[in-house]
Specification:
This protein is α+β, with helices and mostly antiparallel strands and 576 residues long. It contains 15 helices and 15 strands. The N and C termini lie far apart (151 Å). It comes from Brassica carinata.
Length: 576
């Protein structure tokens, strides 16, 4: 049996040497040496297992991340319309809370001066009372000192009497001298102390009884508590003639404040409160009902509303050259009158807008004409203009869909940087368009149809009643070329037209050419030169007795192309 076991062990060793290359000696390993590597292997195995588990965890975790990224990709960001609705609902809720708390009407300012005088009086009284108390305390201390001095001799006198009374007692001489003396002194001293304390208590009681009650500080607190406003009904606030939170028009107005503050709800609420307060301080409702002053006719030449743009927005024109009129703008008082009139005009135009839906045309196109505008040397005037623009921006937010600056001089470009700095909203800055004198008309016609533009600013007059079909036609006359315009008339009628050549310096002529054979052409207007000093709009009319057409010829002999604007209308003849 022993031999078989030895052979088995040698076989095991041989197999181990063949399978494991790290084994160097075929001799059997002692138990101590075998157990150590086994232990190390047992320790090493868990490390591998830990690595495997960590890899497995990583593999498990990585798919989770992939799933998360996939889910994140599938999430659709809210659309701008949804963000607007959410911000609008939040603002409406804050406005409702503010109305319930009556935050739009601040309480009247308290009488500060009266309160200060009332507060000073009790303070002075308290100081005087404190001084009197200090004097009384000093007097009480003096009384205590005097009382203690008066009590001391009274204590010494009765000490001798008990000694004499105690002499006949049958005691030793030492007892007579020591014992009775100690007893009597302690008793008398305690009695003196009691008398002293009684006197001090009596003095304290007298002091307490003399001290007056505390000053009326708590009374002031009671009055302030009594003046606190009790819960009342929600207030009603209107802005631009529209009551807040009463109908759908209020949503359109609230959206303007949200857009002005980039949909930051709390900032929009603050802006709304400030606007309501500004309107109350300046009495806008009363200003709207007030009659215009004597200067209104002159002011109307500076700022007026006329026509609409191609999208249907009302257009407001402003002429900065009128600020050169010294009679109107000689001092601050007249400037303030103009500002009040300008606010009144703005309020009238705003109340005429349609707030029924966000898609309605509830904003303006502003055209500012800088021809003959005051120079930069008139700083006071430009500061006034800045202040006025700031007021309109803060209290009429998002009422400008576009701002056109025409006939801008060269010196305005550097000033534009400072002028634009007062416009805080990037949305408003993006709406500003500048054009020099040569490109002003083209810039206006890009946004406003010529028939809607006043003659003063390069458009056509409104002498001819228009319908939807009577639109203005634009044409280009090439350099050194002629251009003809034909206006047909199929029956007896009155044919009217108006025409304008931007830049002028052309020749103009018109004639009637009948369609029937044997009829003669009729000269309506002889060829004539149209210069820069002539009337900008050329008008004409002709009573047509037979079918034909009016032919207008424009001859441009210059080296620059010209733009022609024209329109016509036929009306039945009333004399037939």
């Amino acid at each position: 049996m022993a031999q078989e076991e030895a052979q088995k062990s040698t076989d095991v060793v041989a197999v181990a040497t063949t399978t494991d290359k790290e084994v160097t000696a075929p001799a059997p390993v002692p138990e101590k040496e075998v157990t150590a590597p086994v232990a190390s292997e047992e320790k090493a195995v868990p490390e591998k297992e830990e690595k495997v588990t960590s890899q497995a965890d990583a593999e498990k975790s990585s798919p989770v991340k992939e799933e998360e990224t996939v889910v994140a990709e599938k999430v659709i960001a809210p659309s701008p319309e949804e963000l607007e609705k959410k911000a609008l609902e939040e603002l409406k809720e804050l406005v409702r809370e503010a109305l319930n708390k009556r935050e739009f009407t601040p309480p009247p300012p308290p009488p500060v001066k009266e309160e200060k005088t009332e507060e000073k009086k009790p303070a002075e009284e308290t100081k005087e009372e404190e001084k009197t108390e200090e004097k009384k305390e000093e007097e009480a201390v003096k009384i205590e000192e005097k009382s203690s001095d008066a009590v001391a001799p009274e204590e010494t006198k009765p000490e001798e009497k008990p000694e004499a009374a105690a002499a006949p007692a049958e005691t030793t001489p030492e007892e007579k001298e020591v014992v009775p003396a100690t007893v009597t002194t302690t008793e008398k001293a305690s009695g003196a102390e009691e008398d002293g304390t009684k006197t001090v208590e009596a003095i304290e009681e007298s002091i307490v009884s003399v001290t007056p009650p505390e000053p009326a500080a708590p009374v002031v607190l009671e009055t302030t508590v009594a003046t606190e406003p009790e819960p009342v009904e929600p207030e009603e606030v209107s802005i631009y003639g529209v009551p807040l939170l009463q109908d759908e028009r209020s949503d359109t107005i609230l959206l303007k404040f949200l857009r002005a503050r980039d949909f930051k709800v709390k900032e929009a609420l603050t802006m709304l409160k400030n606007t309501v307060q500004w309107r109350k301080e300046n009495k806008i409702d009363e200003l709207l009902e007030a009659e215009a002053g004597e200067e209104a006719s002159e002011f109307e030449k500076m700022v007026f509303a006329h026509g609409v743009d191609k999208e249907g927005h009302v257009v407001i024109y402003s002429s900065y050259g009128e600020f050169q009129n010294k009679e109107l703008f000689s001092d601050k008082e007249k400037l303030n009158k103009f500002l009040s009139w300008r606010i009144r005009l703005q309020e009238k135009c705003v109340r005429a807008l349609d707030f029924s839906s966000p898609d309605a045309k509830s904003s303006f196109v502003f055209v500012s004409d800088f021809r003959n505008a005051p120079g930069l040397g008139k700083r006071a005037l430009w500061q006034f203009i800045k202040r006025a623009v700031k007021q309109f921006e803060d209290n009429y937010p998002e009422f400008a869909t576009r701002e056109l600056f025409i006939n801008v001089p060269w010196w305005y470009i550097p000033y534009y940087k400072t002028f634009g700095s007062i416009i805080t909203s990037p949305r408003t800055r993006s709406k500003m368009v500048l054009a020099g004198p040569a490109k002003s008309a083209d810039t206006i016609f890009k946004y406003i149809a010529p028939e809607q533009v006043p003659v003063k600013y390069g458009g056509l007059s409104n002498d001819i009643p228009l319908t939807g079909e009577d639109t203005v036609t634009e044409a280009i006359v090439k350099p050194a070329a002629k251009y003809t315009i034909e206006m047909p008339a199929s029956e007896a009628c009155t044919l009217s037209w108006e025409l304008r050549v931007l830049g002028a310096d052309v020749s103009y002529g018109a004639q009637f050419e009948p369609t029937t054979e044997g009829s003669y052409d009729v000269i309506v207007s002889k060829n004539r030169k149209i210069g820069l000093t002539d009337e900008p709009v050329t008008t004409g009319s002709f009573k047509v007795g037979e079918p034909g057409k009016i032919v207008i010829t424009i001859d441009n002999q210059t080296s620059k192309k010209k733009k022609v604007l024209y329109r016509f209308k036929t009306q039945p003849r009333s004399d037939l």
